[in-house]
Design a protein that fits this description.
Number of strands: 6
Oligomer: single chain
Helix content: 25-40%
Distance between the termini: 36 Å
CATH architecture: Roll
Shape: globular
Strand order of the largest sheet: 2-1-6-5-4-3
Structural class: alpha+beta
């Protein structure tokens, strides 16, 4: 994962585990592997995207599999961590500026950049994704 984390903490081991998990998810995205993409999602995870609520790891997996077989075939992501903060011992929130590079693109168009919020929870000593939300990074100008 590239970028600068603007909210540092002394929890370097936890930070490393969380960012390694994100790196593995984005590698799975590049491979079009929905099962690997959701491997670190909690079973009861939620994902909220514009116009969509996905209420479990299975629903998230199924929607990603369909996307990887269709409009996201051959795509990858860019991701810039903006902050990471811990809420107690077993919860963390990361905010990233992200975007999807469709097959053949070398840059994400500005109107497709998003702000993403990741919610992580440690269960049984292991970090997992409890929730994800994204929204457009900029409000499109009205014509």
């Amino acid at each position: 994962m590239t970028g600068t984390i603007t909210a540092f903490t002394a929890r370097t081991t936890d930070e490393a585990a969380i960012f390694a998990m994100l790196d593995e998810m984005y590698a799975a995205w590049r491979a079009g592997d929905a099962d690997a993409f959701v491997r670190d999602y909690n079973e009861d995870a939620t994902a909220v995207l514009p116009g969509s609520l996905r209420g479990s790891r299975q629903v998230i997996r199924d929607s990603m599999a369909a996307a990887f077989a269709g409009p996201l075939r051959g795509s990858s992501t860019v991701d810039e961590p903006l902050s990471l903060r811990f809420l107690g011992e077993d919860a963390a929130i990361a905010v990233c500026r992200s975007g999807v590079l469709l097959a053949g693109e070398s840059a994400v168009p500005e109107d497709r950049l998003i702000n993403a919020t990741w919610v992580f929870e440690r269960r049984d000593g292991r970090w997992g994704v409890a929730g994800y939300h994204n929204s457009p990074a900029q409000v499109p100008a009205k014509a």
